[in-house]
């Protein structure tokens, strides 16, 4: 009976040793748990940014369609101005064209701000990817090996390139619109004299 008690005491002591070892292992894992929580937040931020990008692209397509329609409308207005004999009718049409251009200008400026903000977010995410060398990807939570890190950085660079090209397009459209606006204002001034 004494040997059974001794055996049982050894088993209990062994179990207590295993519990103490498990507690040490758990304490050692706390920094990893905190890092995982941080990466989860980064993943959620990346997903939010992806939704913003999709919405921005949808808005860009809508604005481009609207802009094309407004350009056609403007071309029609300009053609009508050449045919309209009355000064007031010509002035009214120029005023309408100027208002349309101002709306388009505001829409393009808004789009430019949205795209610039998204480019900034992508650059921040890229900086985090370049700076962080953890074992978990902040985007997909998968293992973040050097190849996957390069892949994510490449994707971000590609998106930044696309958005930068769009920004250049917006600037060109704003410049073009500014020229058309100045021309319309000169025509309006000429009609008023």
How are the SSEs ordered, and which strands pair?
Layout: H1 2-83, H2 87-131, H3 146-192
Helix pairs in contact: 1-2, 2-3
What's the gist of this structure?
The chain is mainly alpha-helical and 193 residues long. The chain is built from 3 helices and no strands.
Task: Describe the fold and architecture.
This protein has helices at 2-83, 87-131, 146-192. It is mainly α. It contains three helices and no strands. The chain is 90% helix and 0% strand. Helix 1 runs antiparallel to helix 2 (87-131) and helix 2 (87-131) runs antiparallel to helix 3.
Radius of gyration: 32 Å
Biggest sheet: strands, sense, closure? none
- Please provide the ordered H/E string of secondary-structure elements: HHH
- In terms of structural class, how would the helical and strand content be classed? mainly alpha
Low-confidence stretches: none
Residue share in helices? over 70%
For the residues shown, what is the average pLDDT? 87
What is the CA-CA span between the terminal residues?
121 Å
What general outline do the C-alpha atoms trace? rod-shaped
């Amino acid at each position: 009976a004494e040997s059974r008690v001794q055996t049982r005491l050894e088993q209990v002591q062994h179990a207590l040793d295993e519990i103490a070892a498990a507690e040490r292992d758990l304490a050692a894992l706390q920094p990893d748990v905190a890092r995982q929580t941080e990466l989860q937040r980064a993943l959620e931020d990346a997903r939010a940014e992806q939704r913003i990008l999709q919405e921005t692209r949808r808005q860009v397509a809508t604005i481009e369609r609207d802009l094309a329609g407004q350009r056609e409308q403007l071309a029609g207005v300009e053609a009508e101005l050449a045919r309209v004999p009355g000064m007031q009718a010509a002035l009214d049409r120029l005023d309408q064209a100027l208002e349309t251009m101002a709306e388009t200008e505001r829409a393009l400026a808004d789009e430019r701000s949205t795209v610039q903000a998204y480019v900034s977010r992508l650059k921040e995410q890229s900086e985090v990817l370049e700076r962080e060398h953890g074992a978990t990807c902040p985007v997909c939570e998968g293992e973040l090996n050097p190849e996957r890190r390069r892949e994510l950085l490449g994707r971000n660079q590609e998106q930044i390139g696309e958005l930068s090209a769009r920004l250049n397009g917006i600037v060109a459209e704003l410049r073009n619109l500014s020229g058309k606006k100045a021309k319309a204002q000169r025509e309006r001034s000429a009609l008023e004299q």
